[in-house]
Amino acid sequence: MAVLQPLLTDDNCLTPQGLVATAKENTAPFDALERVLKGVETALPDGMVMVDKEGTERKRVRVCWWLDGLNKRRLYEVARAPASALAQIPKEVLAESIDFA
């Protein structure tokens, strides 16, 4: 959120300059806004993929970033995905590599 703060009005809306800055892919403002809007993602363990309802293989999953002790919980507990996708994650896999940077 610190990256976005200088780009916000007093009402926490993006300024015109903020709109331009956050529209440029592969920049810190773009990445920060994407995390605010879409949530935090983490990589699945090496070699693991989940197949979504469209048949697309996913190597990353969004997580419930607001939970306490996130990196000490099991990945299937914190992953935000349909039940069919969560069933593909082994129950013993920990969510230990979630990066908020």
Could you characterize the architecture of this molecule?
The longest helix has 11 residues, at 28-38. The protein is built from four helices and four strands; from the N terminus they run H-H-E-E-E-E-H-H. The strands form two sheets. The chain has a two-stranded antiparallel ribbon with strand order 1-4. With 101 residues, it is an alpha+beta fold. The radius of gyration is 16 Å and the shape is elongated. The protein has two domains: 5-38, no CATH class; 41-86, no CATH class. The chain has helices at residues 16-22, 28-38, 75-78, 83-86; strands spanning 41-43, 50-51, 57-58, 60-62.
What does the secondary structure layout of this molecule look like, with pairings?
Layout: H1 16-22, H2 28-38, E1 41-43, E2 50-51, E3 57-58, E4 60-62, H3 75-78, H4 83-86
Antiparallel strand pairs: 1-4, 2-3
**Radius of gyration in whole Å, from Cα?**
16 Å
Task: Report the sheet-strand fraction.
Answer: 5-15%
Strands of the widest sheet, in order across it, are 1-4
Shape, principal axes of CA atoms? elongated
Terminal residue distance: 11 Å
Number of helices: 4
Order of helices and strands: HHEEEEHH
